[in-house]
Structure formats: structure tokens, C-alpha cells
Design a protein that fits this description.
The structure holds two protein chains of two kinds. By secondary structure, chain A is of the alpha/beta class. Chain A folds into two domains: 5-171, no CATH class; 184-450, Peptidase S8/S53 domain (Rossmann fold, 3-Layer(aba) Sandwich). Chain A contains twelve helices and 15 strands. In chain A, 52% of the residues are buried. Chain B has one domain: Peptidase S8 propeptide/proteinase inhibitor I9 (Alpha-Beta Plaits, 2-Layer Sandwich), CATH 3.30.70.80. Chain B has a four-stranded antiparallel sheet. Classes of the chains: A alpha/beta, B alpha+beta. The A-B interface holds A 207-208, 237-239, 242, 272-273, 276-286, 288-290, 292-293, 302-305, 307, 311-313, 316-317, 320-321, 324, 334, 348, 370, 404-406, 408-409 and B 10, 12, 14, 38-39, 41-46, 48, 66-67, 69, 71, 74-83, 86-88. Chain B: This is Ketohydroxyglutarate aldolase. Chain B: It comes from Nakamurella leprariae. Chain A: Keywords: Hydrolase, Protease, Serine protease.
Chain lengths: 462, 88
């Protein structure tokens, strides 16, 4: 995963360079190409190949002794060159048909406050440039440097694998954008190419209600009920209207791009949070009872309390809802501040084992700064991730639409996707849960942050 | 009886799986033990209401009660930020 640029540089350059070969270059030819670059005429000498080492595991010490190491299975070599020679190496490469690109090698470091094995926060420079000498003496590599080298090679291998081996794909990293056609989240989750619409599936959104006058939903039957004493379903906050728009907005809104995942799903708008944005257990239990009794296959709850404790009633309710064929999907929570080193925790009710917890990713599919991490509680894990940064959706008139961020916005993406799967496969309850987590696209991010990955829409098969 | 103030607890009572088909009976038993029943959520098997603190502990001994959850100071409040907040 490539970090958002605003986290600042976390990789420094060495006096070594990574050579990326074209896909069809055989291993021996890689050796020759490297020798040409180094100005070494014959075989032997200082060019090492990964297959010469035990288990093909090259240690940093061995790599340091060699003038070059060829990772022929990856189609990559690392060469040592004086920074002054970089322009001439670049010139040689530009006329060598065997080589795609030469880039400065980077030292990768674990971000402050992160544990081993988590996101390494790798960042590539936009353009290869003159190298900056690394602080450590290459003759005595520090443990930190060894780890950095290993992480660098592993990261490169991983990204080559993702890119299907194409070095150009490797350089062009994923970043989704809103288009005239649709909000970025619909592009990212495969909604636009899915034949499913959510027809016949009931999605309940328990939130601040819904703007029943919204022109994008005119003529659409809405089942609404308020569980907030003294308030009507009509949404005077905006949060509920936004969530419903993402889950079930129209395929072709009156104006602007599409933002709804399941345009033919039946909308159940349960107002459990007041116009000022708060609600009690009783409101929420009442809304859940209404939705389960009404046979809603999917129940979306973009709400939470920042409590790091098990609340038995939500676990019981989630289990009974699943048994009745209703899948409860809840926001993991926004109590992280990752740039400040705080990963937060999944709150109530998403931390119940029987309620699906959804984290948020941004346009590069990196974990959102605010998105809460799995807690240590049983059931406190994040189960899936979905788009949750700068999400375009409906907003009470006269605003019509708005782009906002939060795990609240990720949750209705999954609710809409669940409706697509429920329509396509007939899955209900636990089976629907299983299908969603199985079909998710795995991400580089830690499973503690994104569960099994990015939720996806069903695609046409055969 | 002295007119001492007795605090009231807001409770969510989870009915056990083996009593789900007798929610009304469980609710009646709760009323007889001092619970003011606000709602019986039939699809969930949850009863919400309030009960004097002094009588709360005994409720867990009743047949058909799986859990009695109480929040100090009132029910758990769930919130979303104001509409113009950057993160929702």
C-alpha cells in the first residue's frame, strides 16, 4: 500500500539502484544487462544471483558485498553505483531494450508507533533522481538497515505481483476519482459493471431519517418510521439521507454522477437518531426490532458509541437477526487519529461478534486516518472495508448532494453490496456475511484495519 | 417507609433463547418484580424499561432472563457528529 502523501516521506535513498527488466528477458540476459551497466565484460565477478543463495534468500550483507544482485524470478536487479554515475546509467538504460526503468533504491522504515508486520508505509519518489547517501556505513549494515532492505525487496516483489509483472503498472498506483459517471466508491467496488441492482431486497438504514422530498428519490416507495419521540422521519440532520443515498440511491440521479450502490433495493428509513444526531439504546433496539420483524435482509447502522466493552444485548440481537435472515452491518468507528499514532478501537455495537464491522479506506485503498482498528475483545474485529473518504451522496434539499468522510459512509456501501449479493445468490443472514467477506478484494493493509479487504459487487459470470 | 430517594436504573433485559415464545409471560413476571416495562421487542427478544436499583440484581434470578444490562446515568447514547463535521 502506498501512503497518502501528507504523511511525509518515510523512505530514504541509498547509492544503489533497482533495475526493472521487461517481462520476456531471460535470466542470463539479465546478468548480461547488469554487467553492461557496470562495465564488467565477463561472467563471474561481483554479480550475484538470488538462486545462488540458500532458499533464494539474499541477506543484506551478501547484497552489500556484491556490486549487483539479480532477482531473476522477479525480473529485477539491484546494482551499486556512485551517485555521480546515475545520469550515465540512466542514459544507458534508455537505449537498452531489456530494461524498463532504473530507480534509486530506497530504505524502508516502519512508521513511528507501528508494530512489526503492519503497513510499512512505503512511498516511491515521483521521479528517480540523484541518490542521497544513506547514513549507515555499507560495510557494517545496521539491523535497521537489514530490515529496511528486506522490507524493500518484499514490497517490490509484492507490488510486482499485484501489477501482474508489468513495471508500468507498478509505477502507476491505484487512485480512484469521482467521474461524471459515478462516485469513486462505485468504481472501486465494481458496482458499475455488476448486473445486480438489489431488486427485491429490503435495506433498512437506522439513522437520522431521510429527506422524503429529495428529487433523486421521487416516485420511489420509502418505508419510514421514527423511533425518536417527538420527531418525524424527515431528516433535518443529513447523515441518514447521505447513508441511504450510498446504499440505495438511483442509477441515474436527476443531476450529477451516480452515488447509489443498489438502486432497486427497497428503502426502509428508520429514524433512531434525532435531528441533533443522538439516540438511545431504546431508539435503536426499537428500530432493529422493526427492521427484523419487517424482514429486511440488510440492516445498516452508521452509528456507534465509543465503548471498548462487550454489550450483551447487541450480540444477542445480532445473532437472532442473523437467524431470522437479517444481516446487521455497523460502522467500525472514527475514534482513530492515525497520523498522530492513535489507531482507536471498534466501538458498540460493531464490536459484537454477530454484527459486521466496517472500516473506511480512501481513494488509494489506504486505511482512512480516522478508521478504528480491531479491538482485543471477541467480536471486536473489523470485518470488511469500504470507501469512506470524500464520499459523494444525497443530502437534504436544498443541498441535494454532499461529499463527506467517515466509517459511517463506508457502512452503507457494504449494505448496498450486501443487497446485490442477496439478490444474486439468494444468500441470507450468516450465508450473506460469508459471501461478503469471501468475495472481498484483499488489501495490503493489515487485516486488523480492513478485515478481509474491500467489499465488492457480484459480477457477471461465465 | 422512609422517603429516601431510590434511584432508578434504565435496563435492557435480554430474554433467554428458551423463553422467546413466552415474551409476554416474561414481561409480566418482570412487572410483578417492580420493572416498569417500556417496550417489548418481539423480533429481538429484548425488553426495555426501568427498575429501582434495589430490585435490579434479583431480576437475573428470574427464569428466562439471559442478561440485564444497565447503563449508569441512563441508556447508552449513540451519536453522529453535526452535519458540517468533516468526519461522520
Amino acid at each position: 500500500m502506498i501512503d497518502a502523501p501528507d504523511r511525509g516521506p518515510i523512505a530514504t535513498r541509498t547509492d544503489r539502484y533497482v533495475v526493472v527488466f521487461r517481462d520476456d528477458v531471460p535470466a542470463l540476459e539479465m546478468d548480461r544487462a547488469v554487467r553492461d551497466l557496470l562495465g564488467q565484460p565477463g561472467p563471474g565477478g561481483a554479480v550475484a544471483r538470488a538462486e545462488d543463495f540458500a532458499d533464494r534468500a539474499v541477506t543484506a550483507e551478501e547484497a552489500d558485498r556484491a556490486a549487483a544482485v539479480v532477482f531473476d524470478e522477479l525480473g529485477v536487479a539491484v546494482i551499486a553505483a556512485d551517485p555521480d554515475r546515475y545520469p550515465s546509467v540512466q542514459a544507458a538504460v534508455s537505449t537498452d531494450p531489456r530494461i524498463v526503468v532504473v530507480e534509486p533504491e530506497l530504505i524502508y522504515t516502519v512508521l513511528p508507533g507501528q508494530l512489526p508486520g503492519q503497513d510499512t508505509g512505503v512511498q516511491l519518489p515521483a521521479q528517480p533522481g540523484p541518490a542521497v547517501p544513506r547514513p549507515a556505513d555499507p560495510a557494517t549494515p545496521s539491523a535497521e538497515y537489514l530490515r529496511g532492505y528486506r522490507d524493500g525487496v518484499q514490497d517490490l516483489a509484492r507490488r510486482l505481483g499485484q501489477a501482474g509483472g508489468s513495471a508500468m503498472d507498478l509505477i502507476a498506483q491505484v487512485s480512484y476519482q469521482d467521474t461524471d459517471q459515478a462516485a469513486w466508491g462505485l468504481h472501486a467496488t465494481g458496482v458499475l459493471t455488476s448486473p445486480a441492482t438489489g431488486a427485491g431486497i429490503r435495506i433498512a438504514v437506522l439513522d437520522t431519517g431521510f429527506d422524503l422530498t429529495h428529487p433523486d428519490f421521487s416516485g420511489r416507495p420509502i418505508t419510514g418510521r421514527s423511533f425518536v419521540p417527538g420527531e418525524e422521519v424527515q431528516d433535518r440532520h443529513g447523515h441518514g439521507t447521505h447513508c441511504i443515498g450510498t446504499a440505495a440511491g438511483p442509477a441515474a440521479p436527476g443531476q450529477g454522477p451516480r452515488y447509489g450502490v443498489a438502486p432497486e433495493a427497497q428503502i426502509w428509513a428508520g429514524k433512531v437518531l434525532s435531528d441533533s444526531g443522538s439516540g438511545t439504546d431504546t431508539n435503536i433496539l426499537a428500530g432493529l426490532n422493526w427492521a427484523v420483524a419487517g424482514g429486511c435482509e440488510v440492516i445498516s447502522m452508521s452509528l456507534g458509541a465509543d465503548l471498548d466493552q462487550v454489550v450483551q444485548r447487541y450480540e444477542t440481537v445480532g445473532r437472532r437477526a442473523l437467524a431470522a435472515g437479517s444481516l446487521l452491518i455497523a460502522a467500525a468507528g472514527n475514534n482513530a487519529a492515525r497520523r498522530r499514532g492513535s489507531v482507536g478501537f471498534v466501538g458498540v455495537p460493531a464490536n459484537s461478534p454477530s454484527i459486521m464491522a466496517v472500516g473506511a479506506v480512501d481513494q488509494t485503498l489506504a486505511v482512512a486516518d480516522f478508521s478504528a482498528r480491531s479491538s482485543a475483545l471477541p467480536g471486536g474485529q473489523v470485518d470488511l472495508a469500504a470507501p469512506g473518504v470524500d464520499v459523494l451522496s444525497s443530502w437534504p434539499m436544498p443541498g441535494r448532494t454532499r461529499s463527506i468522510s467517515g466509517t459511517s459512509m463506508a457502512t452503507p456501501h457494504v449494505a448496498g453490496l450486501a443487497a446485490l449479493w442477496a439478490q444474486t445468490r439468494g444468500d441470507r443472514g450468516q450465508a450473506l456475511w460469508t459471501t461478503l467477506v469471501q468475495s472481498a478484494s484483499r488489501l495490503d493493509a493489515s487485516s486488523a484495519d480492513v478485515g478481509t479487504g474491500l467489499a465488492l459487487a457480484p459480477q457477471r459470470t461465465g | 417507609m422512609a422517603a429516601a430517594h431510590i434511584s432508578t436504573a434504565h435496563v435492557s433485559i435480554t430474554v433467554a433463547d428458551d423463553h422467546l415464545d413466552d415474551l409476554d409471560g416474561v414481561a409480566q413476571a418482570l412487572r410483578e418484580r417492580g420493572v416498569h416495562v417500556d417496550e417489548v421487542f418481539g423480533a429481538l427478544g429484548i425488553i426495555v424499561g426501568s427498575v429501582p436499583e434495589t430490585r435490579r440484581a434479583a431480576l437475573t434470578q428470574l427464569p428466562g432472563i439471559a442478561a440485564v444490562d444497565v447503563q449508569p446515568g441512563g441508556p447508552t447514547r449513540f451519536t453522529v457528529p453535526p452535519p458540517d463535521a468533516p468526519v461522520q
